[in-house]
Amino acid sequence: MGFKHTIDVNRCKGCGLCITVCPKNVLEISPQVNTKGYFPAFQARPEDCVFCTTCCIMCPDVAITIDKIANKAA
User: Fold this and answer.
1) Is the separation of the CB atoms in 39 and 31 below 8 Å?
2) Distance of CA 68 to CAs 2, 10, 14, 26, 33, Å?
3) Which of 14, 32, 36, 62 has a C-alpha 20 to 30 A away from that of 72?
4) Domain-embedded: residue 21
5) Against a cut of 0.90, is the pTM above it?
6) Angle at the Cα of 44 (from 43 to 45), degrees rounded to 5?
7) Which H/E stretch holds residue 6?
8) Does 23 fall in a domain?
């Protein structure tokens, strides 16, 4: 069983709360503007993510999700 971290860039207002609480310093503010004119968060270092869900809990816009994904059988 694996996990997938997703940020809905068009819901994110770039408040930075997720960046502040990330224990592994995975997230940063994007230099790209979203459709609402905000600079959203993104996973700058996805390989360091431990899927702790702290960013999901902190996000006031519910823009971050971590979902379980089934591994394909060999």
Assistant:
1) yes
2) 6, 22, 25, 19, 29
3) 62
4) yes
5) no
6) 90
7) strand 2-7
8) yes
